[in-house]
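Box 3.1 — From sequence to structure: DsbA family protein
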Amino acid sequence: MATQKKIRNQVERVNVDKELQQNAVKNNISSEADRIVVNYYTDPLCCWSWAFNKPWQQIQERFAPFLDVNYIMCGMIPSWDKFEDPMNCISGPAQMGPLWMHIEQETKISVASEIWLTDPPSSSLPACLAVKCATLQSSQAGVGLFHRLQQALMQKGLNISKESVIHAVASEYAEQHPSLFNFGHFELHWKKGAAKSLLRGDIQQALYYKIDRYPTLTLTHPKAEGLMMVGYRPYEVLQQGFNSMFERI
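Predicted structure (token representation):
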């Protein structure tokens, strides 16, 4: 019975994917200029974004040829003096741990919540800046380092607000992907502050659109009204949103 259900789901997915491809051809979604622009507002310290990785990856695997994706770093915690989350009653690092434990329980995704007691990150700006430094090499390098920093924090419990930790993560990433990411270039961009304007632009963009919950996805296309999805969403809900966007174009 389970095997039959799995086969039926695969057949249904193939049929839907064929329909998407047919609609794409019909609507001339064939070049980068025709694609749906997806801005992903997030932060390496955002635990909900960590939990969001699986459904987000599923969406990208399914719709990748029709999407132009941008990762927007939001600087969620500039410093603890400037951060407050009234929705979750958080104004200090010790209160972040229970939220992570709640997210772990809700999503079944393991997180190193003890870091908020043992070595709490002081800010998310350094990690955001590191992602933008990597993006200067390529968008793919930026996304890759974003996920490596997430893993260092959420899985290994490393404090990614520390420059030494960031550089260790970046160095390991470069060793494993030398054709994609150059650590020497990263160090140079970091020392020169070459990516500060990029990060500033990301933060200003999030402020302009009043985006302060993460993850948030915005979908835009010249031929259709835009769509915003705020907060963690399972794959089925994301799929409905993306399908509705394609139907409008």
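Summary of the box: Residues 2-26 form the longest helix (25 residues).
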